[in-house]
Amino acid sequence: MPTGRSEASVARRERTRLLLRSPTFIIGSAVILFWIVCAVLGDHITPYDPRFDQTPEIGAAPSAQHFFGTDRLGRDVFSRVLAGSRDILLIAPLATLLATLIGTTLGLITGYFKGIADNTISRVIDALLAIPLILLAVTVVAALGSRSTWTVIIVIAAVFSPIVARTVRAAVLVEADLDYVEAARLRGERSPYVMFSEVLPNVMPPILVEATIRLGYAIFAVATLSFIGFGLQPPSPDWAVQIADNYQDLAFEWWSVLFPALAIASLVVAVNLVSDSVQQVLER
Amino acid sequence: MGRYIAKRLGLAVITLVLLSMIVFAASQLLPGDLGRSVLGRDASAEAVTEYNHEHGTDRAAVVQYLDWAGGVARGDFGNSLVPPEEPVWSVIRPALANSLKLAVFAFVLVVPFGLLGGVLAGLRAGKAADRGITVVGLSLAVVPEFVTGLVLILVLSIWAGWLPVTAQWEPGSGPLTQVEHLTLPAIALTLVLFGYIARITRAGVVEALDADYTRTAFLKGLPRKTVIRRHVLRNALFPTIAVVATQVGYLLGGLVAIELLFNYRGIGLTTLEAAQLKDYTVLSAGVLVIGFTYVVVTLVADVLSALLNPRIRFGAAE
Question: pTM of the prediction?
Fold first, then answer.
């Protein structure tokens, strides 16, 4: 179907054009890009070693030498803020990707086959969603006794995949009644083919939107877990770890807490701006 | 209507049973060898075996679950694994009361502001005020509670000196002192919800403004104020209030970080400490109690919105 394809590509180009004209999208992407560059360059652009540098000045206020001051171990806060995006920018997208893959598969299966399997899975998902993500993660991390990065990734992916599955399922339920699905079935196509090659491309927009929303929450979750001591561990210069290290001294060394806090806020808000504009463009 | 409530009640019971299974599996089966986990790597094999026998963790998983769930159903969560091995319920109960106080206060704060923001945005849909409220609300909704909490502490208590830094007060303090200590954590806890409530309210207002009955009311010559109060707000707000209750989950999830930050002995902090100490009985009780609260509140909210929605009330739904 050459005409169908060109129509699709015209629509895609139109959506890209709309996205590039949206100020929220541009601001959001610029901030995300900035943090990605920091994550990639890491130690190469920081003025001091973000992990172990022990400058003689301990708890120094912001100055020309140390733009954001130094923390209670004498580490340069500016360097640590620049280097602090790396871990969270690896973990959160990985967890989101994993959750999207698992959730999409689950959603396709439950939405396409319906029936008992669908009902059972939906009940389990409901029960799982009754436990706040942070508590579930804390429980699993405590039970496994391992605070490795992979545990955090897998726990977040495990909690997010039912949420993705629910969104995908709802979209698939609408599609499954349409003629093209029936036509594919009558042609004698097998279920996996119909699900992945016929239905999946048509439910991509909601999946994409859901993935960008999940990414925001994944960053939220990783940061919160690290803050309460169940995520990333010191001496990682991760922002939430820095905050956990220093917030008891907030009254004396506010700079070692405020700057990483603003960094987290800038990243989550940026991701949210992007997801909001993607949503608006895809759902118009 | 009766059938709808009965069905919803049945589903809630099933969810609760599944919830208890998940909690049990995650907190009591996942650790594997409880004795080894609690006593540590250096303990002798005999001590571990004896510990497991004493705590009944050498039995089959199903037997353990039924025993535990039976106790829970009677309100007996067993004993804490950490000395002085108090009954779990006497650890959980005061913490729950504290959290409830904080959560109710937070809700009382956020609902009026969220509704107000949503109504303002909805009435000015598409204009700058609308964009502003929506973007600020959505942004606040994604910033972790502990981040907003820290900024609030820094600005309002350390720099301005208006409010206390922690949520701890002298025993026997009056309600006013307690409210003073709870204000910051409550604000931090609810900023996340503000955007959500405002968005739902905004959608309701926009829809009601667009409805035929609103146009008719305008065409009848009613003043704008009357139309908005009697037709738009009434139709937009009632369903919103019910939807808002379903967001209690976010509130409960935020308790952990906020109670840690403000050093407030609620269910979140208690559960977190239990996780740190590997006190699995307290941990599972904390998670279960929070999950239970969520399911019950959601159930009440669903039934409430059904009562407010004639289409469900008269049995057309499902």
Answer: 0.87
For B4, other C-beta atoms within 10 Å of its C-beta total: 19
pLDDT interval class at B26 (50, 70, 90): confident
Q: Mean pLDDT for each consecutive 10-residue tract of chain A (284 residues)?
A: 64 83 90 94 82 72 84 86 91 96 91 79 80 86 80 88 89 87 87 87 90 92 93 89 90 90 94 88 75
Comparing B126 with B21, which gets the higher pLDDT?
Answer: B21
Tell me the CA distances in angstroms from B24 to A205, B70, B96, B144, B255, one per residue in order: 37, 12, 20, 28, 22
User: Residue B248 corresponds to which amino acid?
Assistant: V
Q: Extract the tokens encoding B288.
A: 């279960």
Burial class (CB in 10 A: 0-12, 13-18, 19+), B218: middle
The secondary structure element, H or E, covering residue B257 is: helix B248-261
CA-to-CA distance for A31 and B249, rounded, in angstroms? 30
Question: How far is the C-alpha of B69 from the C-alpha of B20, rounded, in Å?
Answer: 7
Nearest to A126 among B15, B27, B153 (CB): B15
The CA distance from B92 to A139, in Å, is: 16
Are B260 and B268 in contact, with CB atoms under 8 Å apart? Answer: yes
Q: Under 8 Å CB-to-CB from B200, ≥6 apart: which residues?
A: B118, B240, B243, B244
Site of tokens 């309600």: B175
Q: In this predicted structure, what is the pLDDT of residue A284?
A: 62
Shortest CB distance from A139 goes to which of B26, B144, B147?
A: B26
Q: Say whether pLDDT at B317 is over 50.
A: no
Which pLDDT value is given to residue B174? 81
8 Å CB contact of B257 and A217? no
Could you tell me if B9 lies within 8 Å of chain A, comparing CB atoms? no
> How many angstroms separate the CA of residue B31 from the nearest CA in chain A?
4
CB pairs under 8 A between A and B: 154
The verdict on a CB contact (< 8 Å) between B154 and A258 is yes
